[in-house]
Amino acid sequence: SLSDRLGKIFEGLRGRGALNATDVDNAMREIRRALIEADVSLEVVRAFVEQVKERAVGAEVTRSVTPGQQVVKIVHDELVAVLGDTASPIDLNARAPVTLLMVGLQGSGKTTTTAKIAKRLSEKNKKKVLLASLDTRRPAAMEQLRVLGEQVGVDTLPIVSTETPVEIARRAEREGRLGGYDVLILDTAGRTHIDEELMAETVAIKDIANPHEILLVVDALTGQDAINVARSFDGRLDITGIVLTRVDGDGRGGAALSMRAATGKPIKLIGVGEKMDALEDFHPSRIADRILGMGDIVSLVEKAAEHVSAEDAQKMAKKLKKGSFDLDDLRNQLLQMKKMGGMGGLMSMMPGVGQMKKAMANSNIDEKMFDRQIAIINSMTKKERAEPELLNASRRKRIAAGAGVEVSEINKLAKQHRQMADMMKKVGKGGMGALGGMFGG
Ligand code: GDP
C-alpha cells in the first residue's frame, strides 16, 4: 500500500546524516511509484512529485530534525495542500429551502449518501429536510429513496409517476417553501457512464432548482476513471464539492488525491460504510496522515473521547505515538472496549482497519473474556503492570490464584499484550503489521 511504501522509503532516509540530490531523487522515484500503485492518476502524480521535489531540494534542513523527517514533513504538507488545507463542510448559508443537488454515476452511492446527509442535517443540525428523487427512469430508485427517508425519519416528496425530472424539481421547490423546510436535497438520475442526454437533463434541473450546492458523489474504488468522471461533471455543472464513498474499502487512498487535483473542488464528506451514519467530514490533514501511514490519530482520539474523557484519549494517543503500551493501558483498553460494546470503537480506527475487522470477527470475543482479563490485570502489582517483563513463573502463579484463573490464561494475556504493544509500536512508527490472531490466543 501507499502507506507501507512511503514508510519504507522514509525508514531508509531516516538513518542518514544529510540529504543530497541523489537521496531526493531516489525518494521521489519511490513516491512516484507508490502513488501510481495507489491508483493516483498519472498527471496528478507527475505534478505532485515535481512540487515536492522543488521544495525538498531547496529546503534547508533544520537542526532539530533529520533530513528524512524533513522530507516526510514536506510530502505531508504538500499532500495537505493538494487535498485542500482545511475541512470544507456543506454550506447552508442561503435562503430556505437551501437546495442541494446530488449528481454522479449509477452505483456510486448517490441515493445512500443523500439519505445519510439528510439524517445528519436533521439530527445534528436540527434542520427540517425534504428529499426528492428525480430519477424518473428507474422507479425503483425513487422507491429506494422513499424507504431510506423513512428509515432516517426525513420526509420525501410524494412520488407522482407521470412527471418529468424538471417538473418534480419545481414541485419539490414549492413543497420545500410552503412546507417550511430548511433544506431540500434532490437526488438525480444516475448514469452508467457519461451520457450527453442525461447530462443535458441535469443541467436543465440545475437551471430550475438553482441549487446552493452541487455535490458529485464518486466511488473511491473507481480508480483512474474517476478523474474523467469528475472532470466531465464539473465541466458541465460546475460542482461545488465532492463526496467520496466507499472510503472504507479503499486502502490505497489515491482517489481523494486525484479528485481534488483534477477538479480543484473540495471533498466535503466521505462515506465509510453502508449504514446511515457511516458519513464523516473530510479532513485533509488526517487523510494525508493516513496516506503517509501515521494512522488516523486525530480521529482515534475524537472517537475515543466520545466514550472516555478527552484527557485519557490524549494520553492514549501520546502513548501510541511513543510506542509504549503497558498492562495498565491494556486494562484501560479492555474497559473501553467493554463500554463501546466490543471491538467496534477505538481499535477499528487504526490503520489496517480491514484486516483488523476480519481478525476480530474470526476471534469470538465475548464480554466475559474482557471481565476475566481485567480481573487478571487487577491482581497484578503496579510495578508488574508497568513492566510486564517482570512476569516470571512464580509471579504468574500468584496472579492466577488471585484472579481465580488458570496460569495458562495469564500466559495468553501476556502474549496478547505483547502483540498489541508491538502493533502499537508499528502504528506509532507508521507501519502496520499483520493483525491476525491477535485475540485468538
Ligand atoms: P446510486 O445508484 O448511486 O444511488 O447508489 P446507491 O446509493 O444505491 O449505492 C449502491 C451501493 O453502495 C449500496 O449497496 C450502498 O449500500 C453502497 N454504499 C454506498 N455508500 C457506501 C460507502 O460509503 N461504503 C460502502 N461500503 N458501501 C456504500
UniProtKB/TrEMBL annotation:
Location of the protein in the cell: Cell inner membrane; Cytoplasm
GO biological process, one term: SRP-dependent cotranslational protein targeting to membrane
Principal location listed in the UniProt entry: membrane
Uppermost EC category: hydrolase
Annotated keywords: Cytoplasm, GTP-binding, Hydrolase, Nucleotide-binding, Ribonucleoprotein, RNA-binding, Signal recognition particle
Binding site for GTP: 104-111, 187-191, 245-248
EC number(s) recorded for this UniProt protein: 3.6.5.4
Gene Ontology terms for molecular function: 7S RNA binding; GTP binding; GTPase activity
Recorded superkingdom: Bacteria
Keyword Zinc-finger: no
Topological relation to the membrane, as annotated: Peripheral membrane protein
Any Gene Ontology CC annotation: plasma membrane
Domain SRP54-type proteins GTP-binding: 266-279
Keyword GTP-binding: yes
Annotated catalysed reactions: GTP + H2O = GDP + phosphate + H(+)
Quaternary structure (record): Part of the signal recognition particle protein translocation system, which is composed of SRP and FtsY. SRP is a ribonucleoprotein composed of Ffh and a 4.5S RNA molecule.
Function description: Involved in targeting and insertion of nascent membrane proteins into the cytoplasmic membrane. Binds to the hydrophobic signal sequence of the ribosome-nascent chain (RNC) as it emerges from the ribosomes. The SRP-RNC complex is then targeted to the cytoplasmic membrane where it interacts with the SRP receptor FtsY. Interaction with FtsY leads to the transfer of the RNC complex to the Sec translocase for insertion into the membrane, the hydrolysis of GTP by both Ffh and FtsY, and the dissociation of the SRP-FtsY complex into the individual components.
Comment on protein domains: Composed of three domains: the N-terminal N domain, which is responsible for interactions with the ribosome, the central G domain, which binds GTP, and the C-terminal M domain, which binds the RNA and the signal sequence of the RNC.
Similarity-based family: Belongs to the GTP-binding SRP family. SRP54 subfamily.
Protein name per UniProt: Signal recognition particle protein
Organism: Devosia epidermidihirudinis
Gene: ffh
Shown chain mapped onto the complete sequence: 4 to 444 of 526
